[in-house]
Peptidase domain protein
Amino acid sequence: MQRTLPALLGLSLLLASCGQPGVPTQPGQPGQPSAGAPDRTTDTTMAAPVTITPGQTYGGVIAGQPRDFDYYIFDAAAGDRLQIDVKAPAGSTLDPVVRVYLNDGWVLLEKDDDGAYNPSDNSLDAQVLFNADKTGRYAIEVTSFKLVNDPAATDDNAKNLYTVTLNRR
């Protein structure tokens, strides 16, 4: 995957400047979607990510613009064993892709459909299991598979619903 220096610097500055972890607030407040419900009133962007902590689930939608990428940030201690699940509920048109970024803006992990939930059901859901090798801030990016490898592709569909969950394992 090719990243430009300005994009990496932007993500690094984002990760470095974000506040301490918070908790979900009321629906519709900028940057804080409702826990577990599709967020149709705000967008989690690189400039305004949502803080997620282990045990939380947020709902989102990849829509509202032709190329939508949603961002969540979390802090991890060295040795933390974490699991990120991105699921498209029944009726969703989304084939989700999840990426985990290091504090310096480089991609640590990327997952598409991996059959993590049931290898025989051809699931489109994505799951990332990883151990944090150092203490710091990390970012999660959720988007549509259609947007990952084609810079000209668009996927603005109100049915692109998903949930993202961060857990310790």
Summary: The beta strands are 50-51, 57-61, 70-76, 81-87, 96-101, 107-111, 126-131, 136-144, 161-168. The first strand starts at residue 50 and ends at 51. Confidence is low (pLDDT under 50) at residues 13-41.
